Amino acid sequence: MTRPEPRGDLRSLSGYHSPQLDVDVRLNTNESPFAPPAEFVDAWLAGLRAAALHRYPDRAATDLRAAIASRLGQPIERVFPANGSNEVLQTLLLTYGGPGRRALVFEPTYALHAHIARITGTEVITAHRNDDFAIDVGHAVDVIGREQPDVVFVCSPNNPSGTVEPLAVVEAISDAADGLVVVDEAYGEFAPESSLALVDDDRSLVVSRTYSKVWSLAGLRLGFAVAPSWIVAELDKVVLPYHLDAATQIAGRVALDFVDEMEGRVRYLIEERERLIAALREQSGVEVFSSGANFVLFRCVGRGHAVWDSLVALGILVRDFSSWPGVEDCLRVTIGTREENDQFLSSLAAVLRESEGS
Ligand SMILES: *Cc1c(COP(=O)(O)O)cnc(C)c1O
What we know:
Elements: E1 25-26, H1 38-49, H2 62-72, E2 79-82, H3 84-96, E3 102-107, H4 111-119, E4 123-128, H5 137-147, E5 151-155, H6 167-176, E6 180-184, E7 205-210, E8 223-226, H7 229-238, H8 246-255, H9 259-282, E9 286-288, E10 295-300, H10 304-313, E11 316-317, E12 319-320, E13 330-334, H11 338-357
Parallel strand pairs: 1-11, 3-4, 3-5, 5-6, 6-7
Antiparallel strand pairs: 2-8, 7-8, 9-10, 10-13, 12-13
Helix pairs in contact: 1-8, 2-8, 3-4, 5-6
Bound molecules: pyridoxal-5'-phosphate.
């Protein structure tokens, strides 16, 4: 038997990896440390019980789109929901990327932007960020003018750095680009500014959001784009029919009845984030980057991976970026409960004392 080969341009790709280890304190994948409210689960299951499961779900997910639109004060025609914001990004790239087209990313940033682009046959071009991980407008406008990308990804707050781009920067990028600008706001509710204010039928700009982080629903797969209606119409042609199942549609709609609870969790995590940043700044040998998300990036000069290893030995898992270009020696810690954050801080202090002494 001859084994069929995957498409040539896929052969060099490696899959997406986020190592999971069995530890007490898991602060590595930016999930919420809190489950959604029990009343939400009850309401969701009641809705599911009433659903006609022998029928295909509402293909247009009309109730869900209407609920999201009304919460954001946008017309329903501007909302495109999908199975996680990763499916939103994939659909955008299937529609506006593809063979012969190019996507621009500002590194270091969320690896899946480049990864999904390549899977869809889209060529990836990279621009860089400043040392503090902000995008330099002059550099961005320059690269966009020279390369004329079909799609430009702006991640704000940026994963893994936490950097929030000012609206003026996003606007300047959007003004410079002839292609589509995608602002990934997976952590949008944790940040002081959002590009949702820029979404308009006269601007080729899309904001993508997710229920995974802010809404404590990573176990479901739901995200959405807010985009000009003419873009949503194109995405609706490309995405698989009935891609969004009834259980997910109902959950996404019912979750929006629990906005106060969500906002309470977000406030708690923002307070904890600021407390953690202040505590990390007290540590000698640690460089901390400010964050508008539910995680914090910090650098342990010359010993990033060793610190990660020692934290794992103490039962604390954070994300190791120490060998990534641009974030050398950096680790990223997700904001957990107060207790988890305290465990992380005291373990880190112990690890750093130990390695100072040796
Ligand atoms: C976590 C994350 C996502 C979320 O993807 P989902 O598919 O919605 O879970 C998207 N973008 C960024 C930058 C992320 O960090």
